[in-house]
Amino acid sequence: MADPAEPTAPVAVTSSCTACGACLLTCPEHALRPQGGHLAVLGDRCTGCLECVEICPADAIAVLDE
C-alpha cells in the first residue's frame, strides 16, 4: 500500500515490462527504480515528461489519468 504522504506519479510500469533498463537510462529525474523484482516510479521525482513512455520498447509504461 502506498504511503498517503507520497505523491502519485503520472505514470506506472505495467506487467509488460521486460526490465530492459531503457527507461532507467532515459529518465532525467531518475524517477524509475528497481524494487522487489520490478520497476517502481517515484512520485516525488517524476515530473511527467513522458520520456520513459516514448523510449519503452515493450510499451510497458502507462500514463495514468488524473
TrEMBL record:
Q: Please report the stretch or stretches of sequence annotated as the 4Fe-4S ferredoxin-type domain.
A: 8-36, 37-66
Q: Which InterPro entries match?
A: 4Fe4S_Fe-S-bd, 4Fe4S_Fe_S_CS
Please name the Pfam families in this protein's record: Fer4_10 (PF13237)
Q: Which UniProt keywords apply?
A: Iron, Iron-sulfur, Metal-binding
Keyword check for Iron-sulfur? yes
Record flagged with keyword 4Fe-4S = no
Protein name, UniProt field: 4Fe-4S ferredoxin-type domain-containing protein
Query: Which organism's genome codes for this protein?
Result: Streptomonospora halophila
Q: What is the lineage of its organism?
A: Bacteria, Bacillati, Actinomycetota, Actinomycetes, Streptosporangiales
